[in-house]
Amino acid sequence: MKNFRFFKLSTFFTTATFLLVCMTPSFMKGQVQPQTPTFVSAGEILTDNSDVAQLAFDVQRTIFINETNRYFSGDANFLVVECVPSQLAQLYTEDHIFSSVQLIKIKINDETQPFSLNLDLLQSFPELKYVWLTYLSDICNDGTDECLLEIVQNSISSQNEDMTIIYSLSISQK
What we know:
By secondary structure, the protein is of the alpha/beta class. The protein has two domains: 1-33; 35-169, no CATH class. 28% of the residues lie in helices and 22% in strands. A hairpin with a 4-residue loop joins strand 2 and strand 3 (70-73). The protein starts with a helix and ends in a 5-residue tail after the last strand.
């Protein structure tokens, strides 16, 4: 009789474990959830991470890309790229000059149309850790940054969970 109870109890736990595993959302979908980068506001990361603050605010060897030219601050081993959304296509080109870049800073003004950046296609950036998006206008139309996270998440695509996307709002006072 004891063996029969043990068998029933053992069968119950085996069945329960099997059902629990089978009922998880990722198992039911038959796919693994995609990895995504970390999205964080500038205020949060600056208090926690001095590495990105040094990259962003200290004098660094920088490549500046605007509508017409590339300008260089320093002569090699560039750590930062600063550009505008209309020039993002230049980042997708294979170029050894980007090989040591750790931070891409993108400044978005009020004339900028919605843009997208696929970080998985940036093959020339093996050291890239951060992308910083600075919005220079009232993108949320209410003087706050309440909608920024959603806008940024819709603009950036990546499967790299080691990447950190930083966003900030910098509206000039009139």
